[in-house]
From TrEMBL:
Signal peptide residues on this chain, from the entry's feature table: none
Gene name for this UniProt entry: POLI
Similarity comment text for this entry: Belongs to the DNA polymerase type-Y family.
Domain (UmuC): residue spans on this chain: 23-236
Keywords assigned by UniProt, alphabetized: DNA synthesis, Transferase
Keyword Glycoprotein in record: no
GO BP: any one term: DNA repair
Superkingdom as given in the UniProt entry: Eukaryota
Gene Ontology MF term list: damaged DNA binding; DNA-directed DNA polymerase activity
Protein name listed in UniProt: DNA polymerase iota
Organism: Chelonoidis abingdonii (Abingdon island giant tortoise)
Lineage of producing organism: Eukaryota, Metazoa, Chordata, Craniata, Vertebrata
Residues included from the entire protein: 1 to 449 of 698
Length: 449
DNA sequence: TGGGGTTAT
DNA sequence: ATAACCC
């Protein structure tokens, strides 16, 4: 490594700068199936699928070799592979818990960890990379070795500033995956690049349990390798349809399309955003997720058509949520009920919801036993229900969901207090089993106290 | 198509 | 409150 300046002065990245970032994206291999196999090792060498209702939502690689795909119907899956073992994955509790263990593990590397679903994380390791680079330069060490694959098999140039940083990033990514395996028993992929979009795209290039780094010169090859605009993260179903109406289908089509006409279709903000994405350009920061913004519980079914049935389902959902919120420790200030009505046309979208503030006298009673809070909440939820459904008319629901949001910390944990700073990554647990988490929290918190 | 999540309008 | 996005 050559010193950037003759005196060996280190060029640091200004805080908040978007210029020389190193981002890791991680993606666990068939996450739900992995959790089930840890839970029951007998399943390890068998083709395994995780079932929700009549769908196989994910499966292990043994099952994939036999032709099972994600989101395949149970009927098709059994037909394709009669030996397929199915476990029910409708209760997400164990997946959610393992998911947060992974995020907390990554937070030991950098506080900037952003969750994407239960099985993906972005980690901004720019500062860690700078620290290691500085240390290497002080030591006068001239060797750094890359971990994992390089996208396109591009040659690394150790005289290139960004190449060196990305190579150090690949070592850190390897350490993160090692820690994940040693401490949690989980395998997964990682991608290292200069922004979130690119790190996510590159992490999937070598698939189970491998990692890949993208060097800047191969950026256009990466985005160009996507066979359709809908494969660009951020361009979803609706936007894809509108772009197709403009005659666009490849990433190159989008790159070279008139920005003026695109802005007329999508608005200038959205137009600029997705056209930048098409070039692999993404300046969005890794936003630390922290604890969740909302907790919800839902259930789908073929048919629910009477008020007593609705009340029963709502009570079930609420009981689960109250359990979860008491473990979280925070209090919800808003409650929402969501329904999905049956309709033969347009049947997979269109949900309706109504929400309202939770009365303050109900909020107070949240931490203390659950039972004095359920009756008023069921009352509120049934009122919300009647705002959407005229109960004297026939109705046919296929989903109910209850959501707590506007979550606020306990009154005692105000901004200036010690408790606030010790609170972050693991909320006080009623079971007290997580005492081993405390030391790592303090490592991150001490400098503030 | 499940059972979750987030942010923007 | 809905609509879009993500897994």
């Amino acid at each position: 490594i050559k010193p950037i300046h003759p005196a060996g002065h280190i060029k640091t990245v200004p805080s908040g700068s978007t210029a020389h970032r190193v981002i890791v994206h991680t993606d666990l291999d068939c996450f739900y199936a992995q959790v089930e196999m840890i839970h029951n090792p007998e399943l390890r060498d068998k083709p395994l699928g995780v079932q929700q209702k009549y769908l196989v939502v994910t499966c292990n690689y043994e099952a994939r070799r036999l032709g099972i795909q994600k989101l395949m119907s149970v009927r098709d899956a059994k037909e394709k592979c009669p030996e397929l073992v199915l476990v029910n994955g409708e209760d997400l509790t164990q997946y959610r818990e393992m998911s947060y263990k992974v995020t907390e593990l990554f937070e030991e590397f950098s506080p900037l960890v952003e969750r994407l679903g239960f099985d993906e994380n972005f980690v901004d390791i720019t500062e860690l990379v700078e620290k290691r680079l500085a240390q290497l330069q002080r030591d006068g060490c001239s060797k750094v070795s890359l971990s994992g694959h390089v996208y396109n098999n591009q040659t690394v140039n150790l005289h290139d500033d960004m190449h060196i940083r990305l190579v150090i990033g690949s070592q850190i990514a390897a350490e993160m995956r090692e820690a994940m395996y040693n401490r949690l028993g989980l395998t997964g992929c990682a991608g290292v690049a200069s922004n979130k979009l690119l790190s996510k795209l590159v992490s999937g290039t070598f698939k189970p349990n491998q990692q890949t780094v993208l060097l800047p010169e191969s950026c256009q090859d990466l985005v160009g390798s996507l066979d359709h605009i809908s494969k660009v993260p951020g361009i979803g179903y609706k936007t894809t349809k509108r772009l197709e109406l403009l005659g666009l289908s490849s990433v190159r089509d989008l790159q070279t399309f008139s920005p003026v006409i695109l802005a007329k279709e999508l608005g200038v903000s959205m137009a600029q955003h997705i056209q930048k994405l098409s070039y692999g350009d993404d300046d969005s920061p890794v936003a630390a997720s922290g604890p969740p913004q909302s907790l919800s519980d839902e259930d789908s079914f073929k048919k629910c058509s009477s008020e007593v049935e609705v009340k029963k389902k709502i009570e079930e959902l609420l009981a689960n949520l109250l359990d979860r919120i008491s473990k979280d420790g925070r209090k919800p200030h808003t409650i929402r009920l969501t329904i999905r009505k049956f309709s033969s046309t347009n049947k997979w979208f269109s949900r309706e919801s109504r929400q309202c503030p939770i009365p303050s006298h109900v909020i107070q009673k949240f931490g203390t036993g659950n039972s004095d809070v359920v009756a008023p909440l069921v009352g509120i939820l049934m009122k919300l229900f009647r705002k959407m459904i005229k109960v004297e008319m026939p109705f046919h629901l296929t989903l109910l969901s209850v959501c707590f949001s506007n979550l606020k910390a306990l009154p005692s944990l105000t901004k200036g207090s010690i408790g606030f700073y010790l609170m972050r990554s693991s909320p006080p647990s009623s079971s007290g089993k997580k005492m081993d988490d405390v030391p790592q929290v303090q490592v991150n918190s001490c400098s503030f106290i």
